[in-house]
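Troubleshooting log. The previous structure file for this entry was overwritten by mistake, so regenerating from the original sequence record. Sequence copied from the archived sheet and checked twice against the printout by T.R.
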Amino acid sequence: MRLQIVDLIIIAVYLLSITLFGLRFRKAQRSLRDYFLADRNIPWWAIALSIVGAETSTLTVIGTPGIAYAGNFGFLQVVFGYLLGRIVVSLIFIPQYFRGELFTAYQLIDRRFGKNLHRITAGVFLATRAAAEGVRVWAVAIVIHIALGTGDVASVAIVLLLTLIYTFEGGMAAVIWTDVVQLAIYIGGTVIGFITLLHLVPGGWPAIHAVAAAAGKLQVFDFSFTFHKTFTFWAGLIGGMFLNTATHGTDQLMVQRLLVARNQRDSQIALLVSGVVILAQFALFLLVGAGLWVFYRSPAVTERFASNDNVFPTFIVSHMPHGISGLLIAAILAAAMSNLSAALNSLSSTTMIDFYLRRKPETSDRKRLALSRGATVVWGVVLFVLALALRYGGNVLEKGLSIASLAYGGLLGVFLLGLITRRATQKGAIAGMLCGLALNIYIWGWTNIAWTWFVTFGSIATFVVGYLASLLEAEKNADSAQTSA
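Regenerated output below.
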């Protein structure tokens, strides 16, 4: 079953409208400060909503209901850790980012350690963000394929091309304000979808609650302590805190939003408020998943799914009233475009600021802006290729988080070495980061440890090895100085 003409019209109107809306910001782009920092003139509430939009991709919209459909509400334990991580970033990271005018997170590493580690951290971000974003872009193709019946290449190209147009032209201002609009669309669409689901299940919410609760679908907490189970209280609170500290404190995708605030206080408020919104959002998506599980238990419903990620999109296309189906597909595309535009802009800013302009700082403002737009296009092509290469295996939400988590441990460990210690050196931090990355790759490839622990182990290993290596370097230098004397 495919969408009807009214649904296709709604989707087409959304795609055209959001692209034209983003293009409105083209005239304001005169310098890199305008293009990458929106001239630091964005209100805190818009930044807060943009943060939520940036960390909400199609992975979240279709993957989170899939998690509840297959399991329970245990994922909320990770979200509680996200709230703690935001507090850490507000207290430790944001004050450092507002000492001087920074364009990227990795300029802070340059200021503290030097150019070598600066290049390494920026390079790691580019590689891992591109890989993780490739999974997210592929998640868009799942929805479009189910809704429109298009092939893999066309499904990825449709949204990627339209997002690229307004990101290319409007820069960070377009990204922020389209995020706000798209957040309203996908949250509103999901609420309407959930209300419709309540009407489709005989007995409505009381029936869904009774059946889901009896099956343990509404269970949130699991206090067992094991490194091999993904969603436990300890993995969520500790692992989620380390993961969120890394994503919002060291990942240019998020840090760039913190940097566009008018001042440090606005940046902190925006980040903390976004945590409240993200908690409510994940609770909504999990409720949808529990409702879908009850709905599909009916003998009258015969669909079978190759993946849990297909459950929500298939339900939208097959069972939602016409018009609402189109609205919900548009809502999922809104989440995809919001996250994708953020990725394109952050990849472009890191490429320009942390690599190109370090080699050619004399480049004129006009050429800088043109090259920044060119970098945005190049990264769009890269993400297109990666999306087609990374489309196989596993729940897309967990797969995307797993890939990103591999490098976050090393990045977070290096940032903590620089921010909370004075004795850490560049060589010591590099040694620590290499050990943290190696440990995470080993854990990912050769153990059954859950991805929720990757960042915790990687950052602790990076910090400990980096600090000890720095002490050894200092001791060696002291001995050499005494010998020379």
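The first helix runs from residue 5 to 23. Archived copy saved in two places this time.
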